[in-house]
Amino acid sequence: MIPLATLYYLLCYAWQRLPVPAVLQATEATPFHRPLELLTQMLLHATRELLRTGLPRGYQTQEAELRELRGRIELAPSLGRGLLPQGRAVCTYDELSANQPLYQLVAGTLAALANHRAVPVALRRDLGHLRRRLPAEVVPLAPTAGIFAQLRHQRPASREAFLLHLCELIYQTALPEPADEGRGRFVDFRRDERLMARLFEQAVRNFYRREQRQYRVFAETIAWQAVAPQPQDLALLPTMLTDTTLESPARKIILDTKYYAAALRPRYDQQRLISPHLYQLYAYLQNVRSAAGQHLEGILLYPAATAAVDVHYTLGGHPVRIVTLDLHQPWPGIAADLLALVA
């Protein structure tokens, strides 16, 4: 499994936030053994930063019985309760408040982790203290899948999106589900290949977006160079979406990340490349359109888990490289290897 320090960098790049020296120093001062401890430290730091700058406030609709008119009078409940002869009325009005769903979610996550047996006592103490520092008006909200879907739909800004990603990963890997009667579902998500594949892909793409200026970096939808007797049949073809496309006037690189335990598989007592991965990249290269004079090439990138691989081919007239990246080395070495890969 990859070191937690490397995992921290991957999470930061995946969620488009620069690594924070304070979190790295805390990791070095008290070495973490499980991802939950790292995620907890990240949440503590992000929440402290939020409190330092002040929680943004937004308008929320309130309903209350008032003696002074405010906002809109709700006649039906006011008449039904006989309030008008008493000089009172039910009113709905908008009020600025920090009691927003995201901050309620952060408060709920802090509270849940403060009682989580897998979190070290010192961190639980910090969580409880920080929870009490949140404004009293922020009512904790227990995390649920529906809340995360609703907040993602609102497309929060960078800082808020980072908090949302962080709380969601904690919820997915460490907090009890509502039907579990408080039983935690803590797992070391570094063993979850699907989750790590998504994080690895996002981290690599965002690393190139931030750390180099030679290429435009994006995920590209490739149209099949195909014809059919019935044009509507073309809609049945599967979508081709690259993990990362790097493009400059002179070069276009299709880079596919594969978070697998090994870049090779045994077949008939011999190690072979993973054929579906190679077929997929080959299909991309045969169908993608490049500009005149643009050199097209492909890269398959794996984490180096069992053995290092670095092989070059020419497939369909295009250079292809299958290479592993050592995620156990210190991050400066990882960053240098990524940059050298497209230099």
TrEMBL record:
<protein>
    <recommendedName>
        <fullName>Restriction endonuclease</fullName>
    </recommendedName>
</protein>
<dbReference type="GO" id="GO:0009307">
    <property type="term" value="P:DNA restriction-modification system"/>
</dbReference>
<dbReference type="InterPro" id="IPR019292">
    <property type="entry name" value="McrC"/>
</dbReference>
<dbReference type="Pfam" id="PF10117">
    <property type="entry name" value="McrBC"/>
</dbReference>
<dbReference type="InterPro" id="IPR014407">
    <property type="entry name" value="McrC_bac"/>
</dbReference>
